[in-house]
Amino acid sequence: MEYAKNIFIENVKDTFLNIWLWIPLMVAIFYILIKNNSWKRFLVNLFSILFLLMLSLRIAKQWVGEKEEFISVVVAIGCFLLCLIRSLKFIIFVLLCFIGLLVVFWNIEDIIYQFIQGLLISSFVYLLSLYIINCIVKERSNYISDEYTKAGYLVGDVNLLILFICFILNLILLISLFKLIYIIT
Could you tell me if 87 and 155 are in contact, meaning their C-beta atoms sit under 8 angstroms apart? Predict the structure, then answer.
């Protein structure tokens, strides 16, 4: 039984690190960014995400291993999206799912270190993008309706993002389970 558990945990780690599984989530993120922002704000957010990717990859290559590099990037992008969308439901969902999944399958000290690193990097990039939007693009928006989050994202779009995250996490567990069944039989 312990052997099967170890194989399953390794399968989950390997599947979690598969970049092809994250493409539908990135498409959903870009759809939400395009739909809920003006083209100027979308470009600033897009370049912020690209800058965040480059910066977090550069820092992760220096301080962590190759497998942990991807986790550091995922945490940085997740923290940036938490700052960008500012929805309490989204924050609670992401914290419960990703932190729970990562703590179960990875070393807790590494996860805390990468979470702090991702939070610092994403906060820096988010503040930089806010500065660009407010001072250079000069675009401010106020949403008072319950249909929008504090940052102006439609609640239905946030629910769509949560649905994609659920889909990917369930797909990771299903693929890992099928790999385990294939190995055992």
Answer: yes
Contact by Cβ (8 Å): 61, 53 = no
This prediction's pTM: 0.73
Place of tokens 């039984």: 1
Kindly report, residue by residue over 104-160, the tens digit of the pLDDT.
666 677 777 777 877 888 888 888 888 888 887 776 665 556 677 766 778 788 888
Total count of domains within the chain: 1
Give the number of other Cβ atoms within 10 Å of residue 26's Cβ: 13
Q: Which domain holds residue 91?
A: 2-184
Please provide the DSSP assignment of the chain as one string.
-HHHHHHHHHHHHHHHT-GGGGHHHHHHHHHHHHHHS-HHHHHHHHHHHHHHHHHHHHHHHHHS-HHHHHHHHHHHHHHHHHHHH--HHHHHHHIIIIIHHHHHHS-HHHHHHHHHHHHHHHHHHHHHHHHIIIIII-------STTB-TTS-BHHHHHHHHHHHHHHHHHHHHHHHHHHHHHH-
The candidate with the shortest Cα–Cα distance to 119, out of 83, 69, 150, is 83
